[in-house]
Design goal:
This protein is an alpha/beta fold and about 325 residues long. The protein has 14 helices and six strands. The chain folds into three domains: about 160 residues, Rossmann fold (3-Layer(aba) Sandwich), CATH 3.40.50.720; about 80 residues, no CATH class; about 45 residues, no CATH class. The chain has a six-stranded mixed sheet, sandwiched between helices. It is elongated and about 90 Å long.
């Protein structure tokens, strides 16, 4: 991404990241009917840096339009509504490609259905049900996302129609490392047992990896609690106290890291039921035309199979 774009869209990049912004800049949007609802939707997309927009509206600007659409003024009266709205939007962000089509959306749906296949997303506003049903069929066949919006004064509705939407990088609020603290693999257990946490040499003590500290003390806790790891709030606090008790002084960063990561000892193993459902979706057949999302899911499924059948060691599985 260019440095200019990073500066221009800095605030939103912090929300959805560079991948989200790149998807936005590649997208092509078609708006059907540029009334107040549709115009407001396009305004937000244009300010966000959408790739290109196409406004479709065959009507002329009338007096009542001036009271509900801030993109129109008295000089717009009698002119093409699509042209006036498109001109205003281009002024908001000159990096966005914008064009207009002076034609009724209903007519376009009837006479030129292939027109909609060129877009990433179609926003249909204030359309009648008959036209919406036809448009929905057209968009689904072309694998184009359809957003339907209709407003009634201060109320309205929004509906989204699409086959599926895949998100590879969702930019989660936090990332939980899989440290295998519930069931460390044999090599890690063996290595951890070679480290004596009771050693009084401050140099050796400060250089013990915090994961080893957690593995050793989690095992010690389990031995004293019928094989169970800390689960309640009080037990987690007591486990932190156990870590603190092994510190020689308060400036040992490795023990501070162990205390901060102590909650990972109580984190359940395995993957969520939602992810299992996606991995085991037998209806999905991956080929050379499949989206990247399903290719990655197929690879993850193969990896899971190797781990289950061939018992591939965890360290190797990370590379697969």
């Amino acid at each position: 991404m260019a440095a200019e774009s990073k500066t221009k869209y800095d605030r939103q990049l912090r929300i959805w990241g560079e991948q989200g912004q790149a998807a936005l800049e590649k997208a092509s949007i078609c708006l059907l009917n540029c009334g107040p609802t549709g115009s407001e939707a396009l305004k937000n997309l244009v300010l966000g840096g959408i790739g290109s927009i196409t406004v479709v509206d065959g009507s002329k600007v009338e007096a009542y339009d001036l009271g509900n659409n801030f993109m129109l003024d008295e000089e717009s009266l009698g002119q093409s509504k699509a042209k006036c709205v498109c001109s205003f939007l281009k002024e908001l962000n000159d990096a966005v490609k914008a064009k207009f089509v002076e034609e009724s959306p209903d007519t376009l749906i009837e006479t030129n259905p292939s027109f909609f296949a060129q877009f990433t997303l179609v926003i249909a506003t204030q359309l009648l049900e008959n036209s919406l049903l036809k448009l929905d069929k057209i968009c689904r066949q072309a694998n184009v996302i359809l957003v339907v919006a209709r407003s009634y004064g201060l109320t309205g509705l929004v509906r989204i129609s699409l086959k599926e939407h895949n998100v590879i990088e969702s930019k989660p609020d936090h990332f939980l490392d899989d440290l295998r603290l519930h069931n460390p693999w044999p090599e890690l257990k063996q290595f951890a047992k070679t480290i004596d946490l009771s050693v009084t040499d401050p140099v050796v003590h400060k250089h013990t990896p915090y994961i080893v500290i957690l593995v050793r003390l989690a095992e010690k806790w389990a031995d004293a609690h019928d094989g169970c790891l800390p689960s309640t709030r009080q037990e987690k606090k007591e486990f932190k106290d156990l870590i603190k008790a092994h510190m020689l002084n308060l400036d040992e960063d490795n023990y501070k890291e162990a205390i901060e990561a102590s909650f990972k000892v109580s984190t359940p193993r395995g993957i969520s039921s939602h992810l299992c459902q996606i991995i085991n979706d037998a209806a999905v057949q991956v080929d050379s035309t499949s989206p990247d999302f399903w290719v990655l899911v197929a690879a993850l499924k193969v990896k899971s199979f190797l781990l289950l059948v061939f018992k591939v060691p965890p360290l190797i599985s990370f590379v697969l």
